[in-house]
Design goal:
82 residues; 0% strand
Length: 82
């Protein structure tokens, strides 16, 4: 009986830890996490890269280019233009 209780308790702890590790729902928090992961990878790959350089490179990489944003046209709503 004690083994069963210990097994159930252990599985509940594992399930609870997975819920804590789950990705946050806020887009701002996700973007911040992506930026920090990118910076960590860049700085670990190149020991000569500074924190500020890594941040600049990762921000450029994660933000969509202005050409991409300009190429997105509004959806045709069916309204006639004068």
């Amino acid at each position: 009986m004690r083994l069963f209780i210990a097994a159930v308790g252990g599985s509940l702890i594992l399930l609870g830890s997975q819920a804590v590790i789950a990705q946050p729902q806020s887009p701002a928090v996700i973007a911040k996490r992506q930026l920090s992961e990118c910076m960590a990878k860049r700085m670990s790959a190149s020991k000569n890269l500074s924190y500020n350089e890594a941040m600049r490179i990762c921000k450029e990489r994660l933000e969509p280019s202005k050409d991409t944003l300009a190429g997105i046209s509004p959806v045709n709503t069916g309204a006639k233009s004068p």
